[in-house]
Amino acid sequence: MTPQPAPTDRAHRPYPSRNLAPLILGLTGPKHQRYAAESVLWDNREVNFGALLTAMVTPFDANGQIDEAATVRLLAHLFETGSDGVVVCGTTGEAATLSDQEHLAMIALVVNQVRVNHPGKTVVAGVGSNDTRHAVHLTAAASALRPDGLLSVNPYYNRPSRAGVIAHYREVDQATDLPVLLYNIPQRTGADLPNDLLAELAQLEHIVGVKQANAANLAKIDGLSIYAGNDEDLIDVLALGEPGGICTLSHVFGREFRRAIDQPQDRAAFNDSLADAYRDMGIAPLAVTNKAALNLIGMDVGGPRLPYVSLDLDETNLIRAMLERHGLLQAAHS
Q1: Residue 326 placed within a domain
Q2: I need a labelling partner for 67 at 20 to 30 A (CA). Which of 58, 168, 229, 241 fits?
Q3: Which residue, among 171, 179, 181, has the nearest Cα to 13 in the 3D structure?
Q4: Is 299 part of any domain?
Q5: Are the C-beta atoms of 149 and 87 separated by less than 8 Å?
């Protein structure tokens, strides 16, 4: 299905058509023409990305370059273990260390793989920046690649005023025809998006939801779908009647997350059952610990890019012991 075109009666900044995607990427050969894929239909903010989206790591090879084959294998693993979709080029995907060329190529690769090999699954592309011009560029370029939606974090570090945040998102909104999820993670951005501001941003045409990583703000917001931005908040978000979560431990605990979503009677014990995983995976940035865990279970995704560094021996052994307690190493090697 294809998205509805943007209204023609408003002054939209032109965004590239999907046929320009290979040109944006600097890829013009036949191998890359297939990257221009279709997106899901969305109408009147009724968007369903799924209940379980995994904020996917970006696999790197031994030379620190994007590993396409490992990406294909990782996608299959995530969908086989319960994910409805993936978020690509987010924080866990080390987007901050990707060039624009790599960023867009990764989106293109994942969109193509999902359309061809995993129909019905969804792709949300990270396009955030604290430079509005750069955010607009990424938003327009990613939109040309036709993911199902976009994830846009509020400007970090420079911490604009409320008026500046609204102006920033107005520009982002005008750069796309795709549904956009906001991302509120004040522990990283240094600035919270309070719920009244989120409600105001929901009035923009393409803003349809928020990845909420501030547990204190968890509440229904008129005009927005709420996705848990912290794994341990998934159950509370589901209790609100909201769609689900954008999670990280679902890289290795996908079946457990799927069970909690599909079997409400099991939700009360969910967080307790993963308490040691939340604790141990928090010894380093989640991009690092998730890569370590995936590598340990035989899903080779390489290491992180600087300034992230791989786990040391003691940290790796901590993750290995946790996986063993949950029976994941035996399952991986059986």
Answers
A1: no
A2: 229
A3: 171
A4: no
A5: no
Q: Give catalytic residue positions.
A: 183, 211
DSSP of 25-86: HT--SHHHHTT--------TT-----SEEEE----B-TTSSB-HHHHHHHHHHHHHTT-SEE
Q: Is the pLDDT of residue 3 over 60?
A: no
Task: Please say whether the beta carbons of 127 and 151 come within 8 A.
Answer: yes
pLDDT confidence band for 331 (50 / 70 / 90): low
Determine the residue type at 79.
F
| DSSP letters spanning 262-326 | H-GGGGGGHHHHTHHHHHHHTTS-HHHHHHHHHHHTT-----PPTTS----HHHHHHHHHHHHHT
pLDDT digits (tens, 9 = 90+) for 205-237: 999 999 999 999 999 999 999 999 999 999 999
**285: Cα separation from own chain's centroid:** 16
State the pLDDT confidence band at 7, using cuts at 50, 70 and 90. Answer: very low
> Within 10 A of 5 (CB to CB), how many other CB atoms are there?
7
pTM of the model: 0.88
Question: Does a structural domain hold residue 325?
Answer: no
83-99 pLDDT, tens digit per residue, is 999 999 999 999 999 99
Q: Is the preceding omega at residue 147 within 30 degrees of 0, hence cis?
A: no
Closest to 79 (Cα-Cα) out of 50, 106, 107: 50
Residue 97 is encoded by which pair of tokens? 């260390």
3-state secondary structure of 296: helix
Instruction: State the CATH number of the domain containing residue 75.
Output: 3.20.20.70
In a domain, 131, yes or no: yes
Provide the residue range defining the domain that includes 61.
Answer: 50-282
Handedness of CA 136, 142, 148, 153 (dihedral sign): negative
Task: Locate 259 and state its tokens.
Answer: 């069970």
Q: What domain count does the chain have?
A: 1
